[in-house]
UniProtKB/TrEMBL annotation:
Keywords: Ammonia transport, Membrane, Transmembrane, Transmembrane helix, Transport. GO terms for cellular component: plasma membrane. This is Ammonium transporter. It is found in: Cell membrane; Membrane. It holds the Pfam family Ammonium_transp. The gene is amt. InterPro entries: Ammonium/urea_transptr, Ammonium_transpt, Ammonium_transpt_CS, NH4_transpt_AmtB-like_dom.
Length: 451
């Protein structure tokens, strides 16, 4: 498709062209989402022990470096090339990594009369290069999220290599499958179309999956990868025998605040426009997050006798995770219900690691996988147009459960394969280095000079 730009570039250009307002908002949203990864570094860093805080934060910053480079080179192409080029994807799983290699093709223009046109068009009402930048930030934070399961014991070099491989063979394909017209989308050759048929007139499956901003692509994906690594790499020395207390709870609260702030870019920016739906998403995101924080604290008060600061921060994240796929499909009341249940479920789920014996150090599984699954499946119950509780029948619920299960299986299998591929590098630092502190042994630094 061709989208024309007038001489005053990015000025509004009618219903089929580019919008300066939408472009400005998506650029702002991209900056907000990128800011989330340093926020995650503070959140995870605060939850870690004093001798491992720098390594934990470095895993997030390392993700920014590795994933950003890869996304520019072939990540966007693997995820969205067919949307611009019209070429067929590969088995509905991923696009040609070389079709938009380096993103330069997105900048190609030609003159048609008095107008300048992008040869490969835009993405909605924003230039494709802007949308590529926005999507880059999602890939970055998804990889960074996984690191919370591996606190205090993973070699930094191994983490970077794993991140590079994982984002290429897991994140980019799942991004294409859900958002780029692949198997888990509402496209003609998707699972949803095979189950309930394809509406050729509407150009979408009769019952299309809903994942507004990344319940499957980001949170189920990261949470399942974290679970696999926690099981395969093994537990920290002393897990189950000693308490691992957060070394800096103000860091945790600061990180949660930055994540909440940045999440408006995450969810609202996914609308790709500054419109009424964007306003609905903003309100739903706030409602669900606030309700989840309260839901977590209620469970904590009943179970442990005291509501905690760490519980409040974790409840915020659980609510943000749950509303991510659902924020454009629910009413504000539905968002309150979704969020309160997410907070309670995640609060209950974080203790499961002790029952099953896997060391998910900073509760990526309990928060991101559990709340991500609930948010994705909860759409089938609470969506205002197609949800079961609104008279829409069971079809949306079935589709949501299918895409959630497919994401779990795909990510679980692929992450396990990558873990064995990377194993010769060595996943873990030595027991001696773990006891000394991974900050000192991996980075020759300490967070605090206390001498």
């Amino acid at each position: 498709m061709l989208l024309a730009l007038p001489d005053d570039a990015f000025a509004p250009f009618g219903p089929g062209g580019l919008s300066s307002g939408d472009t400005a908002w998506v650029l702002t949203a991209a900056a907000l989402v990128l800011f989330m990864t340093p926020g995650l570094a503070f959140f995870y860093g605060g939850l870690s022990r004093q001798k491992s805080v720098l390594n934990m934060m470095m895993m997030s910053f390392g993700s920014i470096g590795v994933v950003s480079v890869i996304y520019v080179l072939w990540g966007y192409s693997m995820s969205f090339a067919s949307a611009h080029t019209g070429q067929s994807d590969i088995l509905g799983i991923f696009d040609n990594p070389f079709a938009l290699f380096g993103l330069s093709p997105l900048l190609e223009t030609k003159e048609v009369g008095a107008d300048t046109l992008f040869v490969l068009g835009g993405f909605g009402t924003v230039p494709a290069i802007v949308w590529a930048g926005f999507q880059l930030t999602f890939a970055v934070i998804t990889v960074a999220l996984i690191s919370g399961a591996m606190a205090e014991r993973m070699k930094f070099a191994t983490w970077l290599v794993f991140g590079a491989i994982w984002v290429t063979v897991v994140y980019f394909p799942l991004s294409h499958m859900v958002w780029g017209g692949g198997l888990l989308s509402g496209a003609e050759n998707s699972i949803a179309s095979w189950i309930f048929g394809y509406d050729a007139e509407a150009g979408v499956a009769s019952v299309a999956p809903i994942d507004f901003a990344g319940g499957t692509v980001v949170h189920i994906n990261a949470g399942m990868a974290a679970l696999v690594l926690a099981v395969l790499v093994g537990r920290r020395n002393g897990f189950g025998k000693m308490a691992y207390r957060p070394h800096n709870i103000p860091f945790v609260m600061l990180g949660a605040a930055i994540l909440w702030f940045g999440w408006f870019g995450f969810n609202v920016g996914s609308e790709g426009a500054a419109d009424m739906v964007a306003g609905q998403v903003w309100v739903n995101t706030t409602a669900a997050t606030a309700a989840a924080m309260l839901g977590w604290l209620v469970v904590e008060r009943i179970r442990d006798g005291k509501p905690t600061s760490v519980g409040a921060a974790s409840g915020i994240v659980a609510g943000l995770v749950a509303i991510t796929p659902a924020c454009g499909a629910l009413s504000p009341i539905g968002s309150l219900i979704l969020g309160s249940i997410a907070g309670a479920l995640s609060s209950l789920a974080v203790s499961m690691k002790y029952k099953f014996g896997y060391d998910d150090s900073l509760d990526v599984v309990g928060v991101h996988l559990v709340a991500g699954l609930w948010g994705t499946i909860g759409i089938g119950l609470l969506a205002t147009e197609t949800g079961l509780f609104y008279g829409g029948g069971i079809k949306q619920l079935v589709v949501q459960a299918v895409i959630a299960l497919a994401a779990v299986v795909f990510t679980g299998i692929m992450t396990a394969i990558i873990a064995f591929i990377v194993k010769p590098m060595g996943w873990r630092v030595s027991l001696e280095n773990e006891e000394t502190g991974i900050d000192e042994t991996e980075h020759a630094e300490t967070a605090y000079e206390l001498a």
